[in-house]
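Thread: quick sanity check before group meeting

JM: Hey all, I'm pulling together slides for Thursday and realized we never actually wrote out the predicted structure for the chain we discussed last week. Dropping the sequence here so it's in one place. If anyone has concerns about the input, flag it before I start.
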Amino acid sequence: MRQIISSLAIDLPSRAKALSAVETLAIGTAGGLIFLVAHLPGGLISGAMVATGIAAIAGRPLSVPPIITQTLLLLLGISIGSVVSRDLINHVSAYPVTIGLLALATFCSTFASSMYLQRIHGWDRTSAFLAGSPGALSQITILAVERGADLPAIAVVQTLRVIILTAALPLVLALAGVTSASSPAMTMAVASPLGLAAMLVGSLAVSLLLQLIKFPASWLFGAMLAAGILHGIGWVDGGLPPWMRGVALIGIGALIGSRFARMRVKTLVGHLHAGLGSFAVAVLISAVFVVVIVLSTHVRFSDTIVAFAPGAMDAMMALALTLHIDPIFVGAHHLSRFVFVTIATPGIVHLFGRPQDDVDD
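JM (edit): ok, ran it. Output follows.
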């Protein structure tokens, strides 16, 4: 009971944090609308991310409080769950094969990126392995502190990877001709007031239950699961109003861009080459597996490339939604990557990183 009450407790931000959040979301909204009006790839999420990233690097103290982050993830999960249909799960039989290949791709890209950072930039093994591990940033941060790794350098490499992928993937898919460059808003009927209430209440309840059992990305996947079930059994028809989906996409983009507020320009510039180089190595490894899957299965190229992109789970899910890509396929794979990284990374660092005695010294 205490766990449930603590999960429901609202941690209201202070006045300074509230003003910072207002500024962050205002800048993100402006950037998202500019991208949308200009028909630039990625629209709302990419524009918000770029605008807040620039402002954060310029020195603005941008941030998004946890309660707003959770609300944004809840809205994003509902939006994704609302598009569930039988057409989206036609190739479920391909999941075991592609998820197995994803695990192998994650293992290979982590080792290749870490070797690049060690050989070319002289990083220690622990920092290199943690920086090369895609996703699960909170777990990576905890491991970095425990093992005495170079946390600022790891944060730069991890953040650059997410920023570049979120900005570049829409452009790559548009140039490849598999999605519209302008990424128009999804045409979906708006659910009835009763349906909207059912999705909001159901999503909140499932998300809290998942949080109690420490399920990864509980707010996102809880809302996605609840909305998907309600649509699958025919109790709800339609999704969120377009403006609410837009708020979710802008908010996620602003959240990603605000990560640069924690970094000094000197730190960012000092590790820029390492971040770009390790990103290129990871993308090349992932691209090999994407080609294998596209040539050997019936999974679409656009679905595969977003599912295998070594980026943050929330950002890739948001891109799947805005680019008309199968969100169920993408979600299943990024959840699998998260679980794999969470389980495997501590063991990899223990076996191949610096001995704990060296850290303690």
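AS: nice. The first helix runs from residue 2 to 8. The CA atoms of residues 53 and 164 lie 11 Å apart.
JM: adding both to the slides.
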